[in-house]
User: Which sequence fits this backbone?
């Protein structure tokens, strides 16, 4: 029972990824579609990050602090790992301070 | 003493004194090959990169020098592997909590690991174990996964335009399995087209991290202190921010598209009635709407592709 569920899950998830990747092998020339696909990553990531990031940690204030640090470091064009680790560190410190008071 | 003996001694002596250094300009290892005593420096990147030590050195020393020369396409396995390490670390913590949750809902640890190894998706898996626990039908399972993961279709389509000639049909069939939010984000953030070796490298650490984290979470239960788990939760979002902010700084249209997407996604999160929509559908609507607006008002010039 459970195994069939897992099989259905895995099958659907894989097909959703595989079909567009395999079927669209030619480069799309249409300027409108090209522009659309150019903006997709930024739009997807923006929509996934905000506002979900604010409820990702225990307290909303630690999340805000972590977000601020991440945006600042990203603006300074630091590497992915640097931005991610300092965001985590900020959340850890701020939550420690919140518990303290 | 014959001449061949002399050659042997010279070779040994050269081997002892073989020098190796790090070229900060090209960010490769260089050294002098013993066969060509006194010749020009020869790149030893390939030999060294196969060694673990080289990998670790590359990782720890080279963080922070991420500027990629735009004239090179992203091809190497090691470059991909390095880019995948932060994702793998983030996944380790997320899948750890997935492992705990799966075991708590009554699944065996190995079922949880099997789910992680065959699905490689966060939101879909969390929804999936709830459906299994609730005894949902297969149709309901299939539809839920389809809706939550439909965003991958959009990402696959976008990424299929960024692959170079090394992607044959077989590699596409295999590598499409590894398209996750984070892997897609990093791959599409590369300045040039990506090759299959880069993609295999990029997928490696996240796949291992995702599987291992599930195993650890399922086996160890809740040993991670809550404060650490909470801090790690923001890691993946931090990475997203690191990907979208620099292009938004340079391009006004990209900034506007992001702001539109964020505004729409906030509406779907907070506004009454709208927040009833499932997260998967909401992201698709936000992304399609914002990208359409971008494509209509700021079509991309050929050169910027």
Assistant:
């Amino acid at each position: 029972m459970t195994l069939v569920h897992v099989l259905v899950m895995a099958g659907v998830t894989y097909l959703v990824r595989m079909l567009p990747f395999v079927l669209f092998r030619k480069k799309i020339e249409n300027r409108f579609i090209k522009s659309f696909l150019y903006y997709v990553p930024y739009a997807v990531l923006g929509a996934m990050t905000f506002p979900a990031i604010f409820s990702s940690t225990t307290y909303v204030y630690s999340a805000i602090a972590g977000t601020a640090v991440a945006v600042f470091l990203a603006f300074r064009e630091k590497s992915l790992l640097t931005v991610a680790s300092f965001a985590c560190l900020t959340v850890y410190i701020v939550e420690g301070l919140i518990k303290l008071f | 003493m014959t001449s061949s003996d002399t050659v042997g001694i010279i070779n040994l002596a050269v081997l002892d004194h073989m020098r190796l250094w790090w070229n900060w300009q090209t960010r490769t290892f260089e050294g002098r090959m013993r066969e060509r005593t006194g010749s020009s420096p020869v790149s030893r990147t390939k030999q060294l990169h196969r060694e673990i030590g080289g990998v670790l050195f590359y990782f720890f020393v080279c963080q922070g020098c991420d500027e990629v020369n735009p004239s090179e396409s992203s091809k190497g396995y090691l470059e991909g592997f390095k880019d995948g390490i932060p994702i793998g670390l983030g996944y380790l913590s997320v899948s750890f909590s997935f492992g705990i949750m799966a075991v708590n809902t009554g699944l065996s640890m190995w079922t949880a690991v099997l789910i992680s190894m065959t699905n490689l998706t966060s939101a879909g898996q969390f929804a999936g174990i709830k459906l299994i626990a609730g005894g949902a039908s297969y149709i309901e399972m299939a539809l839920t996964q389809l809706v939550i993961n439909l965003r991958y279709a959009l990402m696959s389509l976008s990424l299929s335009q960024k692959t170079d000639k090394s992607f044959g049909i077989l590699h596409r069939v295999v590598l499409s399995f590894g398209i996750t939010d984070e892997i897609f984000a990093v791959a599409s953030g590369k300045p040039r087209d990506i090759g299959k070796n880069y993609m295999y490298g990029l997928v490696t650490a996240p796949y291992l991290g995702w599987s291992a984290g599930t195993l650890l979470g399922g086996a160890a239960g809740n040993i991670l202190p809550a404060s650490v788990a909470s801090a790690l939760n923001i890691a993946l979002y931090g990475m997203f921010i690191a990907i979208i902010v620099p292009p938004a700084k340079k391009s006004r249209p990209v900034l506007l598209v992001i702001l539109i997407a964020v505004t729409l996604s906030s509406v779907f999160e907070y506004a009454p009635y709208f927040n009833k929509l499932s997260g998967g559908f909401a992201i698709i609507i936000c992304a399609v709407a914002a990208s359409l607006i971008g494509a209509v008002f700021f079509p991309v010039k050929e050169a910027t592709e």
